[in-house]
Amino acid sequence: MRFLPASGRAPAGHTRAPADIAPRLRLHFGARSAQLLEQEGAAVASPENHQVVLGLMERQACTPPFSCKVGDVRAPPTPAAASNPQSTRSGGAVSLAAAQGKEQEVPCTLSHALTVFLTHPSSLLIIGALGGLLAWRAQYPLPTAVDAAVAACVAAGWCLQEWAVHALLLHSSFDWLGRRIHVGHHQRPYFHVSIDDPPIVLGFMAASLAAFWTGFGGGPLALTAAATYYACGLTYEFTHYIVHTRYLPTSRLGRRVRMHHLLHHTRSEAHWLAFTVPEVDQLFGTLPPDPAAIRMSDMARASLKAGRSGGL
């Protein structure tokens, strides 16, 4: 499916979009985002941008062996196996098929997505550690209002941490390993299995537990804080993973988070930096009131190019 530029004249090889495209865009993205996509015809590479977004969101039947239900989307052809095993790594995320130098199939159904996530070593590591912390906390008296306050503060801090790490470290102006890994994540096609490597997860878990244990002097509050942090980490890992699959969330919140992150990848990596709570971008001035006013970055163009060459 191709889209016309603003002139209304189709370039060679392009066909006119169906008449019902605008209502479908508004249904999936809301009026403002739909307007962005309709106006994108005036920008360079806009047909590809339209194609990627529609491929992400359109509700169509999955290819065998998957059966589609509400919330599933059509799976484009699976790209050929990578010749370089390292290319299957998705910028701080690892595919279980990477050891064989294969591209892991990106889920298009919720059941498949859950199976992949819940069998990934990083997910199992977080779930196991979280269970251990909760069992340890159960050895102390029941949680109090102080525990609730600590948990709320840790959860709020997590949301701010997401933005800070993303903006100041992963998209930093200085070169370091984390930035290089994250650039690789952006250079991948938008659709890929994206779950942080176990060493990264273990590092965050160990550092946070040490910090909370030191800060609270051990005891139940330290365990409450650490358990909350681990739960936030698990929520982040799953949410970031699911928006990079071909499964379309059915809830309004899920679609909003997905569109927010989609714009970060396909429009500008300098904006839409928050994740679990998109409103955090408003606090730091990185949530443009009009996405159409933001110029498509070179990194976003590279991501779209990778999506076209890799079967989206």
Automatic annotation (TrEMBL):
InterPro entries cross-referenced by the UniProt entry: Fatty_acid_hydroxylase
A Pfam family reported for this protein in Swiss-Prot or TrEMBL: FA_hydroxylase
GO biological process: lipid biosynthetic process
GO terms assigned for molecular function: iron ion binding; oxidoreductase activity
Fatty acid hydroxylase domain boundaries: 154-286
Superkingdom as given in the UniProt entry: Eukaryota
Family according to the record: Belongs to the sterol desaturase family.
Protein name stated in the entry: Fatty acid hydroxylase domain-containing protein
